[in-house]
Amino acid sequence: MRISELSERSGVPVATVKYYLREGLLEPGEVLNARESSYGEGHLSQLRLIRGLVHVLGASISQVRQILSIIDTPDQSPLEAMGKATSSLPAIGESGDSAAADESQRAAHLLERLGYRFDPASPTVAQLGSALALADDVGIRIDDDHITVYGEAARRIAQADFARVPWADPRAATTFAVLGTALYEPVLLAMRRLAHYEIGLELEADATEITDNDTTTGAP
Amino acid sequence: MRISELSERSGVPVATVKYYLREGLLEPGEVLNARESSYGEGHLSQLRLIRGLVHVLGASISQVRQILSIIDTPDQSPLEAMGKATSSLPAIGESGDSAAADESQRAAHLLERLGYRFDPASPTVAQLGSALALADDVGIRIDDDHITVYGEAARRIAQADFARVPWADPRAATTFAVLGTALYEPVLLAMRRLAHYEIGLELEADATEITDNDTTTGAP
Lengths: 220, 220
What we know:
The structure is a homodimer.
Chain A: H1 3-10, H2 14-22, E1 30-33, E2 36-38, H3 41-55, H4 61-72, H5 78-88, H6 101-113, H7 123-137, H8 144-162, H9 170-183, H10 185-217
Antiparallel strand pairs in A: 1-2
Helix pairs in contact in A: 4-5, 4-9, 5-9, 6-7
């Protein structure tokens, strides 16, 4: 297909496709003549992948390059790729702040207390530390029991994620691992906000029922 | 305390404190003389709240203003406040894209199928729709069973969140509801990434064990 069709089918403007080509994120097409090249389905899927990384994850071009190179590394297990890719993903949260060492350490202590196995140098531990510190700062500290509920729920989700990794095809498995780590995050957050709404409705219904009973029976 | 101490204790630079005062996000202090005012613990906690909204949620000044006015509205239930505040929070995900109508609709169909009660006009439904569409685009579609696991885990978490709302103090309850909705999100994402890492370790250990058995027994 021509670049115009590639652009239309991927939803990426022609100028941006050309930019990705210049940056080497996209392989050149087959040259037809001095002014035109032809592109295949491989280009389309690569372009959709880049679009996902940029638009959903907010990845920078250099992060995209890094993640693509992880996906394309031969002879690695999807697990290795996943670990490397998670470190390359944009940090959780929109803050530009980096976590202070004592915040990371506090998160590490918490994880130890809860019996987690983790890499203390992982950026995720630092991000957890920042989030905990900020919750403290604004007066809504998260206690151990509360975070245990988060941890157990997260584990069930992670098990369901792993059950869907297409292990038989290493490149597909790696792509799934890298993209799924991050692309499913907004899904999880949306489901939690929706659950808040539902539970809110239930509590309101309960409150109304209690009020109704009050007026008829005078019960507390 | 003077503005310098307020700045030091809140971690917000003096110039930013002055900006919040000009913008009316922070009440003026008690005037001591033409050049100095005195601030109290209420100013400090308000400033920490604003800092949390800006730094963790990436809220704009106009979003901060809106959320503060929701928190300060008298005679409302924390549930009402929470619903209003969730709509004012920055959207999930870092994409500037708004969801197409058909994406929202697809999310609404999914939620109906799964038996959720929801507000079809909620921005969360639209954001869920965008996230699902993007996962499709990059070839990692989320099936109904998979999203059911997310939904059930999210519900357990939301129940634990609600169990901690300080209902007896309406302003504290509202603050908790508004901030907790968003401040705990990075915690949840971090816990999921950590769970991926742990499960990855377990799978690698299993794989090594199978390989070891192979060399000694020749079993597949």
